[in-house]
C-alpha cells in the first residue's frame, strides 16, 4: 500500500487531493470526485469510453478482478510508464482521469 504523501505527490500537478481508505486500498478524490484508486501499491486512474483508448495506446493496464469465476474489467487504468518519471506528463494523465470522472458523474 502506498502512503498518502506519495499519492498526494503524484497528483500535485492537478492540486490537493483527498485520500480515503476503501476495500483494503485507497480512493483518491479531487474536488469531491473520485479520479483514482490505489490497490496493491499501484495507482489506477479513472477512464471512460473517450479516454480509455488513450490509456491503452500508452501501454497502461486496465484494472480487473475475479468475480464469480470470470474476470471483471473496471474503468481504471495504470499510470503509463512514461508519466512516472515526468511530472508534466503525469499531470496530463491525472487531468484526463479527472475529466473522465466528471463525464461519468453526469
Annotation keywords:
4 helices, 106 residues, alpha+beta, 6-stranded antiparallel beta sheet
What does this structure look like?
The chain has helices at residues 4-10, 52-57, 81-84, 87-105, and strands at 18-22, 25-30, 33-39, 42-46, 62-67, 70-78. The longest helix is centred in the C-terminal third of the chain and has 19 residues, at 87-105. It is 34% helix and 36% strand. The chain has a six-stranded antiparallel sheet with strand order 1-2-3-4-6-5. The chain has four helices and six strands; from the N terminus they run H-E-E-E-E-H-E-E-H-H. The protein is globular and about 40 Å long. It has 106 residues and is an alpha+beta fold. The model has no long low-confidence stretch (mean pLDDT 95).
Number of helices, counting only DSSP H or I runs of 4 residues or more: 4
How far is the N terminus from the C terminus?
31 Å
Fraction in helix: 25-40%
**Percentage of residues in DSSP E strands:** 35-45%
Mean pLDDT: 95
Dominant shape: globular
Q: pLDDT under 50 segments (min length 5)?
A: none
Counted beta strands: 6
Strand order of the largest sheet: 1-2-3-4-6-5
Order of helices and strands: HEEEEHEEHH
Report Rg.
13 Å
Sheet with most strands = 6 strands, antiparallel
Topology:
Blueprint (H helix, E strand, L loop, with lengths): L3 H7 L7 E5 L2 E6 L2 E7 L2 E5 L5 H6 L4 E6 L2 E9 L2 H4 L2 H19 L1
Antiparallel strand pairs: 1-2, 2-3, 3-4, 4-6, 5-6
Describe what is shown at a glance.
The chain has helices at 4-10, 52-57, 81-84, 87-105; strands at residues 18-22, 25-30, 33-39, 42-46, 62-67, 70-78. The chain is of the alpha+beta class. The protein is globular, with a radius of gyration of 13 Å.
Amino acid at each position: 500500500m502506498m502512503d498518502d504523501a506519495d499519492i498526494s505527490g503524484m497528483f500535485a500537478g492537478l492540486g490537493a487531493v483527498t485520500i480515503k481508505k476503501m476495500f483494503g486500498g485507497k480512493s483518491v478524490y479531487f474536488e469531491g470526485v473520485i479520479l483514482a484508486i490505489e490497490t496493491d501499491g499501484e495507482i489506477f486512474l479513472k477512464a471512460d469510453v473517450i479516454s480509455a483508448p488513450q490509456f491503452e495506446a500508452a501501454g497502461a493496464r486496465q484494472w480487473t478482478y475475479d468475480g464469480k469465476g470470470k474476470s471483471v474489467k473496471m474503468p481504471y487504468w495504470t499510470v503509463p510508464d512514461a508519466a512516472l518519471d515526468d511530472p508534466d506528463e503525469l499531470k496530463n494523465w491525472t487531468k484526463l482521469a479527472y475529466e473522465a470522472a466528471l463525464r461519468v458523474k453526469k
